From TrEMBL:
Protein's name in the database: Uncharacterized protein
Top-level lineage group: Bacteria
UniProt-annotated stretches for the region Disordered: 58-179
Biased composition range(s): Low complexity: 88-102, 109-124
Amino acid sequence: MAREGSYSTIRQKPRPLTITAIILLHILAMYGLAKAFAPEMTGSVERSVVSAFTVNITAPEEEVPPPPEVEPEPDEGAQGDPGREAVAKPVAAPEPKVVIKPSKPMPKATSTGTADTSGAADQGSGTGAAGTGLGTGGGQGGDGAGNARPPVAVTKPQHISGGIDNVRDYPIPEGGRQARRGNKVTVKVTVGVDGRASNCSIFRASPDPEADRLTCQLVVDRLRFKPASDSNGNPIAAPFYWQQRWF
C-alpha cells in the first residue's frame, strides 16, 4: 500500500484494441513508403492479393432450341405426253339470198322533133329544159334586161380638181365671220362615171343652214373627180363625202 504524499507506481496494461490499431498504423505507414519508393513491387503485391480473392462464377449454359423441321418439297413429277394439235373444223357460210326487184321503166327524156307541144316525147319542136337566147334572164350579164346585181366598187372616187374658198365663196353671217369659225359641214354626193357630182345631201350639218346649202351647190358645180372602178377596171358610180371646215 502506498504511502501518503507519494505518487502511485502501478502501471496500467495496454488494451488489445489499442495494440491492434498501432500495428495497423505501422503497416499502413510502411505500405505508403513502399508505394512511394517501389511502386512496381507494391503493384505486383496488390494484384496477387486481389487474384487470391477473385471468384470465377460460371453462368449456366442456355439451352439451344433444336432447328425447325423443314418439310420436303413435293415431287412435281415428270412432264406428260403432249396432246394432239387442235385443227379448226371448216364451216361453210350460207349463201345470202338476193332478191332482185324488177326495174321500172325510165321516164322519157326531152328531145327535138316535129311535135307542136312541149314534153317528154321522143321528137318534137317544143320548148326544152335549157337553152340560150337573147331574152330576159337572171344572170349577171346578157343582152336583155335581167336581175343582175350591181357591180361592186373596188376603188373609191378621188377629188382631182376644183375647190371652195372659206372666205370669198361664203357670205358674211350675222355676227361676222367669227360666228362661223371652227364649224364644219359634211355633204354626201354621188360621183358618176363622168367624174361629176350629183344628188348632194347634208350628211352632218353645221350651225349655219345657209352655209350648208351653199356647200352642196359648190361641190356639184365646181368639183371634179376620178370615178370609182369595179374589179374589171370599169368606171362605176359611187358615193363620196366632202367635208368643208371654216377656220
